[in-house]
Fold these 2 entries.
Entry 1:
Amino acid sequence: MKSNFLNNAGLLLLAIVFSTGLIFAFIELPRLLDIGLQNHLGFPQFDQGEGLNNALKTEMFIEGLHLRWIGYGSLLLIVILIIFGYATRKSGWALAGAVGLFIPVFGQFAYSMFFLAGLGFLRVGWLPFLDISFNILDLGKVIYVPFWILRWFLGLFKWNPHNFLSWIFMAAGAFLFTWGVLLWFKSRYGGNKVATSWLYKISRHPQYLGWILWSYGFILFAPYEMTMKMSWSIPSSLPWLLMTMTIVGICMMEEIKMMEITGGSYRQYRESSPFLLPLPRWLNRILSLPGRLVTRGEYPTRRSQVIWIMLIYTGIFMGLSLIWTDLGLRPDKTMATEESRKELSEIMSKLEQAGENRRAVYALMEDIPAYGEDGVDSLVILAAHPNPVIREFSIQFLGQLNVREAEEIIIHSLSDSVRRVRSSAILAVGEIRSERAADSLIQMLADPRLPNNQFHIYGALGAIGEHEAIPCLSEVLKGDDKYNQIFALDAIMRIDPVEGLTYAIDELQDENEEVRRNAVITCIQSGDRRAIEPMTKLYRDNDFEVRFYARQGMKRLSRG
């Protein structure tokens, strides 16, 4: 008895240690590998942010290195592995394909891993999806419902549990996976064809359940609600859903095989143990209904039934995901009704209670534009609110909606005492192209009391097309601040592309490689063949990206 207890305690301790190490390895190793690729091995950055220039950089990278073909080839290989595994009943091949669907997430979860940069090259497998639609990768968003429910419940206690829940799912998954493997080995060495002890009493497939839970926690690291940069917000829900459904199918296939091998012993075990999760009987009956309609019984007995079950459940989950995925199917609230006015009034009341919690304020205000004229009127009122966070987001939305009627209050906000409000106002006058604001913006450039707004001012002056700003912007190009130079050149090009190209060609010789990269992209974006000769001099530049963009740009300009 004592020996058996010590053996089990040892197995438990080994499972805990191994699980902890597994989590550490999967979280730390990708980060360290990414740092090594980008900082120590000179792997190109290829940072894709917002704007036409960055979109062009990424497109040239994909085209020049034939990544689109690699992406389609990778996806085809994954599909072949899954099909081969199901056709030959070799679950290992199908599992390899399922994991292949999830691999791009390793280039997604850390903010520093930009799209197709460093370890981000793993995301090349998602290019076929992105070619169809960026949002198509969000068609598995229903998978976040359990997380949303838990976050809502714990939020009742004034707690933001995002990171905690991510770690809990990963820890539980790694623990179940490790413990399941150890028990499986113990069962096999004991001569048992069917593992039925301990963990196998609450799940017939604890290793697969462990992987599913671990990977679920892992994708929670991906900021799926952020849309500031495409490189940060590529959704992960559809790949995870497809991977999980493939694994569920593998479980069913393995059970069919076990029934053929062991017959009655596995049938008896299957009747007494849950499939994956121990759920209440009534809930399990509801969730398994589509499957039972296919099999006309409790369990599938043929591969064809397994495939149909996978397709049906995948279709159901993707259909439900449309509720949260923005594919242009959201209800239109622009028609003023008593109900919509009541909803808007409730939002306004909640804003008064939100304080300066930026997340809470934005979550409430992001729905206001959907209320049409009533929403716009509310935003105009809120733009003068005492709460600076409310003022900031109100002006931001007014600019995005291009509300010319709000021009006066937006210009007035250029002198707001709060930097974030000023930044929103600067962006907004650029979005509504307020010529009346141009003089104020030029004056702000020379005001030492207004730091950290220069980039926004350059962008606004470029959007407005204020030609008188070119002398001021050209002086910025003579400085040594690379970010100021990049944003100033972009602004000049928007104001006057012909005159701006002269400055861009001069910037090709700048000492800073990031300035040269931006100048090369600007020359290509202009489509002006005058840039061909200056760019040929960059073929031997000491920066890989400068050389790469110059060669790709030459091809584009020559074709044009």
Note: The radius of gyration is 29 Å.
Entry 2:
Amino acid sequence: MLILRIRQAETALKDGRLDEAFELARPEDVRAHRRGQRLIGRLVRSLVTRGEAHLEDGRLQEAATDCERARQLGGNLPEVVALRDAVGQAVSARERSGRRRADAAATARQHVENGRLSVGANLLADMPTDSHRAQALRGELGARRNAADAALHRAEAAVAREDWAAAMDELAEAKRAHAASNRVQELSARVVTLVNQHARSAIEQGRLDLADLLIGRLVSFSGQTIETRELHQVIEQCRQVRERIEQGHPRQAVEVLQRLASILPQAGWVQDALASAQQSADGLERLRGGPLGMLNAGRPDIRTATPSDETVPFETPVPRPASVNQSAETGMPSRFMIHVDGVGSYLVLRDRQITIGPDGSSNRPELALLSEPGTPPATVERVDDDYFLTSTGTVRVGERAARRKLLSDGDKIALSRRCRIRFGLPHPASTSAVLDLSGTRLPRTDARRVILLDRDLVIGPGPASHIRADELTSPAVLSVRDGRVFCNSRDAIEVADRPMDRLAEIPLDAHVRIGPVSFVMTTT
């Protein structure tokens, strides 16, 4: 039987059936026989030769198998060791090449997702054509180019009909698909210039509402350019004029209108408003300087005057003060809560100046915190686009003690050893700030972030949002105008499970859904 197996193995070896010959030559009795030893020597050399052929053709697994079989039959012969080392080096080289291709594919994907399609295409050109990952990326790259081209075509049509909102929406979609496209950048720059021109024209014509909408959309689209910031400041000065008039300070309104007249020499309404404010200021000063003004100055204090037959005590009716929860500017609450399902709760404060102090304090701060009783009160005030912190005691901002400090994004405020607040300006195009609480919390709510609302706040993905909701694919902007809240979003908006007109306001205590995110605004 042994001689028969040896002959069968010799025949298989002669015919090139090395795998069959290996199986027949494996038993120990074959290797113990002299004829079997000669067979094994020829078989080992044949396995090494075939392994080298596999290695040359890149079939590393087959080469490694032949090397292992030759080692099992002949041990660590020099030719076997050489083949094993060559196979190991080839495997290492293939793994390094695979890692390089994986890194190149990851880099290409990052460039494609960031809209740099040309850079991604150049990286993909160096990858093998049979790579499934490369094929998938090439398909995505082509789809993004098509999407960008289609969005650009729609944006050009919107520009032609002067539909600036649609043009900016389509360009934003084109930027997401192909941000590095020269066509996208050129059309975006053109739209920014045209919208700025239309906003300025609207201001000069007295359409401040339209200009405010255009500037707000433009800031969300491209950030604040020099011209956009100038127009934004013009709108803010117009708001200041309105506030001064409503507060009964026409002389202060005159000062602001004089600045506006120098900035907007073509706006006839500014001159008319300046003349009217000047007339009102002069008339009010004449009234205050006349006999009517003397009446208030010479009136006796009825609390200390002695009643007589000629004087009848009476009580002056005192007007009821405005609700502490009502903004002095409009009917919109000065503080309210936003409860976002699955995200959290947020306290929103609209006043330009808020006080911060411990809950239960006799001064009743707007932002009451559960902190040590000895925590010094502090004030955060918004002046134009800046925020200032003022405190009667010494607080720490960063590593330094301060009583008044211009706040910057990321400043860490320590009112006490435990009560810490982080100040932030998440969105570069918004002057609304956030206060993140640490070591303290708000009474009767689990909110950990307070939003100091100027005109708008952003709900969207990523850290550049006042309310972070990563489920949204694009940001939604809540804006307060004339005491009403409006929402601007690319996603569909539903209120109480019904589609909402984009020009309609968002009511309080109503369930609002923007795409996959839902929230409710409630008073506190």
Note: The chain has three domains: 2-95, 161-278, 335-523.
